[in-house]
């Protein structure tokens, strides 16, 4: 969803004005290339684990860490065999909602800034992901140099509905941690923190801490409208012999993880390409 539109733009396929700005000769005008960027934004609520059952960064965890290492080496079991995201679920914010607005992931440890920032002690993290964002960003060019990074502007939270749903998601995560099942575990909230109560304060915290969970889509969207980049067979409009087969072809972001759908997109693209060449029947017969 980032490199496919970037490659098309560098090749002269895309919005005329952007290509002209960077001195790239126009090969074919497709205004939708790089537009319609969507991504899942993720927020976390964290509490300290007073039971110390969690995976922790503490001296008292060293014996468990050593035992866990040997258990993994000899039996491939224990906490080192876990993906750490121990449980999850899909949640409707309202009884009248047709589909869940949020996806939750629970981790029996602190996870801050994708794990790049270590947090001492024992804790639990509940991730809140808003599934169907209305905000739209774009992928563009910073220069005509193919080795230069593309311009990535996700425009997170530019639509007010996205902010509202994430605020409600934080409140829901707090209610979950306040449930009786967590009474023996919850040692107090560390993020956003007890002082963050009003909607305005929660939104400010979201803007300062929210993270992508790497689900960008939509920048070479499939369709037949003026902003579509590929048709229903994933062929780039107006260009012969060129397909795009990745998350960029999704017109809208799905309400879940994008890895498996991308595998399906690749499989379907292969089948359609083979069918057009009359190869599919031969492969099936073989």
Key words describing this protein structure:
10 strands, 286 residues, two-stranded parallel sheet, 28% helix, elongated, alpha+beta, six-stranded antiparallel beta sheet
What does this structure look like?
This protein has 286 residues and is α+β, with helices and mostly antiparallel strands. The protein has helices spanning 3-10, 16-21, 62-75, 160-177, 199-209, 259-276, 280-285, and strands at 13-14, 28-29, 41-49, 87-91, 102-107, 123-130, 138-140, 151-153, 186-191, 211-212. The strands form three sheets. Strands 3, 4, 5, 6, 9 and 10 form a six-stranded antiparallel β-sheet that branches. A two-stranded parallel ribbon has the order 1-2. The protein has a two-stranded antiparallel ribbon with strand order 7-8. Strand 1 (13-14), helix 2 and strand 2 form a beta-alpha-beta unit. It is elongated and about 65 Å long.
Radius of gyration (CA) equals: 23 Å
Q: The biggest beta sheet, please? A: 6 strands, antiparallel
- Helix- and strand-based class? alpha+beta
The global form is elongated
Low-confidence stretches: none
Oligomer: single chain
Mean pLDDT: 95
Strand content: 15-25%
Distance between the termini: 35 Å
Note the topology.
Blueprint: H1 3-10, E1 13-14, H2 16-21, E2 28-29, E3 41-49, H3 62-75, E4 87-91, E5 102-107, E6 123-130, E7 138-140, E8 151-153, H4 160-177, E9 186-191, H5 199-209, E10 211-212, H6 259-276, H7 280-285
Parallel strand pairs: 1-2
Antiparallel strand pairs: 3-6, 3-9, 3-10, 4-5, 5-6, 7-8
Helix pairs in contact: 4-5
């Amino acid at each position: 969803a980032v490199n496919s539109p970037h490659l098309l733009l560098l090749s002269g396929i895309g919005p005329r004005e952007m290509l002209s700005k960077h001195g790239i000769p126009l090969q074919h005008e497709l205004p939708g290339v790089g537009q319609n960027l969507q991504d899942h934004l993720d927020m976390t609520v964290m509490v300290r684990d007073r039971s110390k059952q969690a995976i922790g960064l503490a001296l008292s965890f060293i014996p468990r860490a050593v035992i866990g290492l040997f258990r993994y080496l000899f039996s491939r079991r224990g906490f080192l065999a876990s993906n750490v995201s121990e449980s999850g679920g899909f949640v409707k914010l309202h009884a009248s909602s047709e589909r869940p607005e949020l996806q939750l992931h629970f981790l029996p440890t602190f996870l801050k800034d994708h794990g790049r920032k270590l947090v001492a002690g024992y804790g639990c993290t509940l991730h809140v992901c808003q599934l169907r964002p209305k905000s739209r960003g774009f992928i563009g060019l910073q220069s005509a140099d193919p080795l230069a990074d593309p311009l990535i502007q996700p425009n997170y939270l530019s639509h007010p509905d996205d902010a509202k749903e994430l605020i409600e998601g934080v409140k829901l995560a707090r209610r979950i941690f306040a449930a009786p099942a967590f009474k023996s575990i919850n040692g107090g909230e560390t993020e956003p923190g007890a002082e963050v109560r009003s909607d305005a304060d929660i939104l400010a915290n979201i803007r300062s801490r929210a993270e992508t969970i790497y689900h960008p889509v939509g920048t070479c969207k499939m369709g037949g409208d003026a902003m579509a980049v590929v048709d229903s067979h994933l062929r780039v409009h107006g260009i012969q012999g060129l397909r795009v087969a990745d998350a960029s072809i999704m017109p809208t972001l799905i309400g879940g993880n994008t890895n498996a759908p991308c595998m399906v997109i690749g499989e379907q693209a292969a089948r359609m390409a083979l069918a057009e060449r009359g190869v599919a029947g031969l492969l099936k017969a073989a």
